[in-house]
Amino acid sequence: MPTFWKTILFLTILLSACNLEKEIDIDLPGYTSQPVVECYLEPGKPYRLLLTRSAAYFATFDLDDPAAALWNGATVTIRVDGQDILLDNQVYFDPVTLQFSNYGSNEIVPEGPDRTFQLYIELENGLIISGETRILPVVPMDSLVVETNAQNKARVITYFTEDQSTHNYYRRTVNFGSRDSVLQDFLVDDGFFDTPKGAFGTGFSFEPGDTLIHTLVHMDEPYFNYLNTLLQSISANLNPFGQPGLIISTVSGTANPIGVFTGLSMDRDTLILP
């Protein structure tokens, strides 16, 4: 046997004889649960808010009692146009968005971009959560343009026009067939575009008859920062060598909350490819 292969065989035997596994005990710091707020105000729709409690990374989820994650017993008020709207503590389900909420009201979020909404939550222990937001003007999509390549695969380009006199932030999503199937979901600010005409595109991945739901959300900077840091935190959790992410919330208060209270300003269009 040549010397080279003898050396390889020797190293293989040596490594196989070594115990490369070693158990390491890591003392994790104690974790204090925080209230988590999710409230999106959409004009023309009723008020809905989800209030839950955070859990430690390795905590187990009780499948026998999923409601244990809900934070009930709070007093939740949203103030707009001088009116206080009290949200009832009960479970709501939206069959379109497939979202659950545990606080809501039959009052409808008013139209108009010039209103300020203030959130005030008092927990049963007296701690406070607060937030403030407004609903921006809708930035409409100008057109959805379908292009086809030589393999008869289609892509769709979304065009819109933005106001370059202000700093704008956008979220663009594309769903395939229904709202619970996400193909694209990304965030950009208007520095991404160098002309007033903005454009988002897909790859050549679609065929005639496919249904694509296009959504363009015009958001403010606090909501942009929240979503951006949330996505970064999710990415860090998937990386065993990543640093823990810090979520920049849009809510604050003595309850030390995390989460978002924001207005949704969006344009949505459904396209069935010809």
Task: Write the SSE topology.
Layout lengths: L2 H15 L17 E7 L4 E8 L21 E6 L2 E5 L4 E3 L4 E3 L1 E6 L7 E7 L5 E7 L6 E8 L5 E8 L7 E8 L5 E8 L7 E5 L9 E9 L1 H17 L13 E2 L5 E6 L2 E7 L2
Parallel strand pairs: 1-17
Antiparallel strand pairs: 1-2, 2-7, 3-4, 3-8, 5-6, 8-9, 9-16, 10-11, 11-14, 12-13, 12-15, 15-18
Q: Can you walk me through this structure?
A:
By secondary structure, the chain is mainly beta. The chain has two helices and 18 strands. It has helices spanning 3-17, 221-237; strands spanning 35-41, 46-53, 75-80, 83-87, 92-94, 99-101, 103-108, 116-122, 128-134, 141-148, 154-161, 169-176, 182-189, 197-201, 211-219, 251-252, 258-263, 266-272. Strand 12 (169-176) and strand 13 form a beta hairpin. It is globular. It starts with a helix and ends with a strand. 23% of the residues are buried.
What is the residue-mean pLDDT, rounded to a whole number?
Answer: 85
Shape: globular
End-to-end CA span: 67 Å
Spatial strand arrangement across the major sheet: 4-3-8-9-16
Give the tally of β-strands: 18
Looking at the overall shape, the CATH architecture of the domain at 35-137 and 247-265 is Sandwich
How many DSSP helices?
Answer: 2
Helix content: 10-25%
Q: Strand portion, in percent? A: 35-45%
- Characterize the biggest β-sheet: 5 strands, antiparallel
Structural class: mainly beta
Return the CATH class of the domain at 35-137 and 247-265.
Answer: Mainly Beta
Which sequence of SSEs, written as H and E, runs from N to C? HEEEEEEEEEEEEEEEHEEE
Radius of gyration equals: 25 Å
Uncertain segments: none
Instruction: Return the CATH topology of the domain at 35-137 and 247-265.
Output: Immunoglobulin-like
